[in-house]
Specification:
The structure holds two protein chains of two kinds. Chain A contains ten helices and no strands. By secondary structure, chain A is an all-alpha fold. The radius of gyration of chain A is 21 Å and the shape is elongated. Chain B is 31% helix and 28% strand. In chain B, helix 10 crosses helix 11. The chains are: A mainly alpha, B alpha/beta. The structure holds adenosine-5'-triphosphate and magnesium ion. Chain A: It is found in: Cell membrane.
């Protein structure tokens, strides 16, 4: 079935890989956009609604803030603790409702975003909590509003660790995207299953692994480079990176 | 120029009246401020001193309402802060600069960017922001470092950025909570000089907290001593020094504790204004034929005039020295008489 000497073998293989890589980048990229758009505010909201936080009195009510904080934490923990395969299957009706189908790369974006949002929100939460309370106080003394404190102090000051957190998040989205490929089709994961597993093609397997490895390396390198550029503190980036990796691993 | 004699006529820039603040509740309650009242006159540098935990930080934080007092009122520049709406309070804060012990600069912004932050928050448009930030960085002597990030600056330079940021929106009042405590003596001196300069050049009223008497002695016009959340003493420095038994004065001008011989009289003379220039002690020795020993002496220049205290030991009992003491008092000097007891202590 697999005939390496077939003149069509290599051209077909490359075309297959090109399409699959494109699909993977598409679902990971779009999921990443949703992850940042929703995970960032979610992380900020979790920190803000804590006792002593910027939004400890939503609409003037400490109790309302506490309730919101509890609900958000619950969502984040739930999202992080349900195994991805189960989440993916459980989300099939939701995916079908949102996308119209539960098969293919576009459909994969739904479970990928939903698993990555709480993951990234936790990273944001950690990064924001690292910001020195003195800076918030200084901003208050300069007459800043709460939103100005978020946009001009918390986010810029936490940007470097958030970028590192994002790189860890992308890595796990890529990881999960392969799993989606297995179940729903699309991307490099599905190539690995269809060719590597079902047709015993070692070549397909190796090339898929190499491509994924390269994508992950490039992204990590970009993130580390970006975080270093954003960090104006000395010798901090390495420490933070390790911190995020230990969080991501645990 | 130090505040002139007509300062009394102007209303105070800061008036804190009957302010109390308790943290926590029940058994864990800590009364940080207990019915505190004080006034800071326009153009003066006002120092707040006291032991750790006395409530100094809490007090200065009530002046821009970073800490909201439980009771009492805070009036800054004629505006009662405790009743302001959130947005009015934010506007008021833009005219009350604050400098912090640990600088509290954004690491992600340059010196220039940190100063511009204050202007962004005050709603200054972008062209004016740049110009004003450079101007103010020049004023604090950091024009050359405008493009540096805080991590590239020394402690003293960081504090200059902190001061520039506090001054950017042209406040009338500058608050400083231990601004020099994280700095070495040399740098401390230069930052204090900067405070003095902006106080004089911009006519800014400064309220600062410190635990170093040298800071008060060096630049303050007035001071308050805080103890367990209460103001124990407050007033102009010259006035405090001429107050018998003033603890601030004793702390500012410690006379040491050389032991007097038993059976002698110990007197503390407080000098202020012109009396410090006269040869008081020589005259005393001559006119009363006394063998005067000097146990301790401090003469300092405060607000441009000499002030100080001297502790003298005179032979004989207080009764025997009454005439000499009267003579000193007649010259307008403030004299406190102690008799050395047998143990050599001073009572
Ligand atoms: N946010 C807070 N919550 C609870 N207790 C507080 C708080 N802030 C201050 N206190 C307490 O209030 C008292 C006064 O504190 P404050 O920080 O004003 O003292 P301080 O004179 O500035 O001391 P230091 O010289 O050590 O800075 C202390 O007992 C402190 O523990
Ligand atoms: Mg303090």
């Amino acid at each position: 079935m697999i005939d390496v000497n077939d003149p069509n073998f290599w051209p077909q293989l490359w075309e297959l890989m090109l399409v699959a890589t494109g699909e993977t980048l598409y679902m990971v990229g779009v999921a990443l956009i949703f992850t940042v758009l929703l995970g960032l505010p979610l992380g900020i909201a979790v920190v803000g609604t804590e006792r002593g936080g910027l939004f400890e009195r939503v609409l003037g009510s400490r109790r309302l803030s506490a309730v919101i904080n509890w609900v958000l934490n619950f969502i984040v923990n739930l999202g992080r603790s349900v195994p991805f395969v189960i989440l993916m299957v459980a989300l099939i009706p939701v995916t079908r409702f949102l996308v119209g189908t539960s098969i293919g790369a576009t459909a994969a974006i739904v479970p990928l975003s939903l698993v990555a949002i709480p993951f990234f929100a936790r990273m944001v939460e950690i990064a924001i909590k690292e910001v020195d309370a003195g800076l918030i106080e200084a901003a208050h003394s300069l007459g800043a509003t709460r939103w100005q404190i978020v946009s001009k102090v918390l986010v810029p000051e936490a940007l470097a660790p958030m970028v590192l957190g994002l790189s860890t998040t992308v890595t796990s989205i890529i990881n999960f995207s392969a799993m989606v490929g297995v179940v729903a089709g699309g991307g490099l994961g599905s190539v690995a299953i269809r060719w590597g597993y079902q047709r015993y093609s070692v070549i397909h397997m190796i090339i898929v692994i190499i491509i994924i490895f390269i994508i992950v390396m490039v992204l990590q390198w970009l993130a580390t480079w970006g975080a270093r550029r954003l960090t104006h503190r000395s010798g901090d980036t390495g420490k933070r990176k390790r911190m995020f990796e230990s969080v991501a691993g645990g | 120029m130090p505040p002139s004699s007509h300062q009394e006529a102007l209303p105070p820039v800061i008036t804190v009246s009957h302010v109390s603040k308790t943290f926590g509740s029940g058994d864990a309650a800590v009364t940080a401020l207990d019915d505190v009242s004080l006034q800071v006159a326009p153009g003066e540098i006002f120092g707040v001193v006291g032991q750790s935990g006395a409530g100094k930080s809490t007090l200065i934080r009530t002046v821009n309402l970073l800490e909201r007092p439980d009771t009492g009122s805070v009036i800054v520049d004629g505006q009662e802060l405790t009743t302001l709406s959130d947005s009015a309070l934010r506007r008021a804060r833009q005219h009350i600069g604050m400098v912090f012990q640990h600088f509290n600069l954004l690491e992600s912004r340059t010196a220039q960017g940190n100063v511009e932050l204050a202007l962004e928050l005050a709603g200054t448009d972008s062209r004016d922001r740049k110009r004003r930030a450079s101007e103010i960085l020049d004023l604090v002597g950091l024009g050359a470092k405008a493009g540096s990030f805080p991590s590239q600056l020394s402690g003293g330079q960081k504090q200059r950025v902190g001061i520039a940021r506090a001054l950017a929106a042209e406040p009338r009042v500058l608050l400083s909570d231990e601004a020099t405590s994280a700095l070495d003596p040399e740098t401390t001196r230069s930052i204090l000089e900067l405070f003095k300069t902006i106080n004089e050049q911009l006519g800014l009223t400064v309220m600062l907290i410190t635990h170093e008497m040298d800071v008060v002695k060096g630049i303050c016009d007035s001071a308050a001593l805080l103890e367990h959340g209460r103001v124990v003493e407050t007033g102009g420095l010259v006035e405090l020094i001429s107050t018998p038994g003033s603890r601030l004065a004793a702390d500012l001008f410690p006379l040491g504790d050389a032991t007097p011989a038993p059976g002698t009289t110990v007197i503390d003379i407080t000098f202020s204004g012109g009396s410090a220039d006269r040869p008081v002690i020589a005259q005393l020795a001559r006119d009363h034929s006394l063998d005067v020993s000097i146990l301790g002496a401090v003469i300092e220049s405060i607000g441009g005039s000499q002030a100080g205290r001297t502790r003298l030991e005179l032979p004989g009992t207080p009764a025997q020295n009454a005439a000499a003491v009267d003579d000193l008092r007649d010259q307008g000097l403030l004299v406190e008489v102690h008799s050395a007891d047998a143990a050599g202590g001073v009572s």
